[in-house]
Write a structure and sequence with these properties.
This protein is α+β, with helices and mostly antiparallel strands. It contains six helices and four strands; from the N terminus they run H-H-H-E-H-E-E-H-E-H. Strands 1, 2, 3 and 4 form a four-stranded mixed beta sheet that branches. Strand 2 and strand 3 form a beta hairpin. The protein is globular and about 70 Å long.
């Protein structure tokens, strides 16, 4: 004997509400969730910094402002070098980086793209439509030592 169970027909909103956290999933009569652009920017910035081969984020001006900001008390700017557009269900991310010398830039960009997409989609439920990576500079390990200053000798032994 075959038994069948009938369920009430799903509304259009219920059938498309597959990812928790999206606006559609939370508008089924229980409230709504709005994700600010700065939240997606921070998630993308942290995800991009996690990739080996990324020395810093942002162009020259953003990095200078970031260094000044680091001297002030407070949290570091995790959105430096990241711009986003956030819609109801989708997000687009632009990441500006400084790459470490010797790293294959096309592989680095692919790694950043994958990490940012995974982080944003899993944490927000938004679909990431694109991640554009701009490489502004290449960092040499010698750059840290080539400040032109000799280390000061200690006055106390």
């Amino acid at each position: 004997m075959t038994s069948t169970t009938t369920k009430p027909a799903a509304t259009a909103d219920e059938s498309t509400a597959t990812k928790p956290g999206t606006a559609v999933a939370t508008q089924v009569g229980r409230g709504s969730t709005t994700i600010a652009d700065v939240v997606v920017s921070k998630i993308a910035g942290i995800a991009a910094r996690e990739v080996d081969g990324v020395h810093d984020l942002g162009g020259q001006a953003a990095r200078v402002v970031g260094r000044i900001r680091e001297t002030l008390p407070g949290a570091p700017d995790l959105t430096q070098g990241v711009t986003v557009e956030v819609g109801e269900r989708q997000a687009a991310v632009d990441v500006a980086i400084v790459a470490e010398y010797g790293v294959a830039i096309h592989d680095l960009a692919a790694g950043i793209r994958n990490n940012v997409i995974d982080a944003v989609e899993s944490m927000t439920g938004l679909e990431v439509t694109e991640v554009n990576v701009t490489v502004h500079d290449v960092h040499f390990a010698d750059d840290d030592d080539a400040t032109g200053e000799t280390p000061a000798e200690s006055r106390v032994q």
